[in-house]
Design a protein that fits this description.
The chain has helices at residues 48-52, 129-141, 160-169, 181-189, 204-211, 225-232, 285-299, 316-324, 339-342; strands spanning 2-3, 17-18, 34-43, 70-80, 90-97, 101-105, 110-112, 149-152, 173-178, 194-197, 216-221, 235-243, 272-275, 307-311, 331-335. The protein is of the alpha/beta class. The longest helix has 15 residues, at 285-299.
């Protein structure tokens, strides 16, 4: 899958991507210290919208028009000339190409333990970047404490569903917002004390106040825009806002961008707005703490995680478009080939 052209603003379309068939690389093509990888799963995430723009001043490398997309994924090594990898090793990393098979230099990947008993797809979800993002926002930055109230937008999504469970494990009152009634029920099943459908609730400020009559101490923001404005109107003094993302604004143009009106409340309420990029935390103790906590919860059956799986690499671009429209239910991943195809 290649990017046909950069999309600076507005909503991308399928015409902005290009699906190509090429000859499959073989082990005979390997040079010294390289690996041949068969891609198993690819991660589809909101941050990828910025990569489509071609921006040169972003925290993450942009996609180049005419070149293959790449990002977080899981693959299996089919051949190797590196002493560090062997045939059959399962690897994960953030430079997996949106190709069925590809050759790469043998660096920048992490091996997944073969005996873990955990599906490779979970290394893009419950043990991957989205869950760690939830951990950084709830634990590292907001420093959630028992008895506080946390509001989480996009609560059924890749990040939100883990933020709910980490907050509940710490004794917080959790309020979740999601975009359909079935997503709301899922949010409640994860332990949220209250949840509402932001698309049908009417006035957002009133809906938040009804769900959290004593106010909000922490807002975990995944959407920005009008919802952020409504959250600001409900924040308690000394509240913290963990700014994870603003997906409602990623496809906005100068004309359609939402202008936040309640920012003035930051001063009298002494609010802290904490913007963060999760990649800044992998080299810190937070990551080891996250792996220990969530792995334990997973083994003990104390945490749930919902994946939304799309089958077929050629369907990846549509999956990305669906993500921006909230059509996914859970963490969106592309299973590059069906089970039958992967046996070929």
């Amino acid at each position: 899958v290649k990017l046909a052209r950069n999309v600076v603003s507005g909503a991308p379309t399928l015409a902005d991507f290009k699906i190509e068939s090429t000859s499959v690389p073989t082990k005979e093509s390997l040079q010294n210290d390289q690996i041949l990888v068969r891609t198993l799963y690819l991660s589809v995430d909101p941050y990828m919208r910025g990569r489509l723009s071609g921006a040169q001043d972003s925290y993450v490398e942009s996609f180049v028009a005419g070149k293959t997309l790449f990002g977080l994924g899981v693959g299996v090594i089919e051949a190797s000339t590196s002493p560090d990898y062997k045939e059959g090793d399962i690897i994960t990393g953030d430079t997996l190409k949106w190709e069925c098979k590809f050759i790469a230099n043998a660096r920048g990947f992490t091996k997944i333990p073969a005996s873990s008993g955990i599906s490779p797809a979970n290394y893009l979800g419950i043990l991957g970047m989205p869950s760690f993002t939830a951990y950084v926002g709830v634990v590292s930055l907001a420093k959630a404490k028992a008895g506080e109230t946390i509001l989480i937008s996009a609560a059924s999504g890749a990040v939100g569903q883990v933020a709910i469970q980490l907050a509940k494990a710490r004794g917080l009152c959790v309020i979740g917002a999601a975009g359909s009634d079935d997503k709301v029920e899922f949010v409640k099943s994860l332990g949220a004390d209250a949840a509402f459908n932001y698309k049908t609730c009417g006035d957002l400020t009133s809906a938040i106040k009804k769900a959290a009559p004593n106010g909000v101490d922490i807002y975990f923001d995944n959407v920005g825009g009008e919802f952020l404005d409504a959250a600001l109107a409900n924040m308690n003094s000394f509240g913290r806002i963990a700014e994870c993302g603003m997906i409602s604004q990623y496809n906005a143009t100068e004309e359609t961008a939402y202008r936040v009106k309640n920012l003035i409340r930051v001063v009298p309420k002494r609010l802290s707005i904490l913007g963060f990029i999760v990649s800044d935390y992998y080299a810190k103790p937070d990551y080891a703490n996250f792996i220990t906590e969530v792995s334990t919860m997973l083994k003990e059956g104390k945490i749930q995680y919902k994946l939304h799986e799309i089958v077929g690499l050629e369907n990846g671009p549509q999956g990305l478009l669906d993500l921006f429209e909230g059509k996914n239910f859970g963490k969106l991943v592309v299973k590059v080939a069906s089970d039958a195809q992967q046996r070929l």
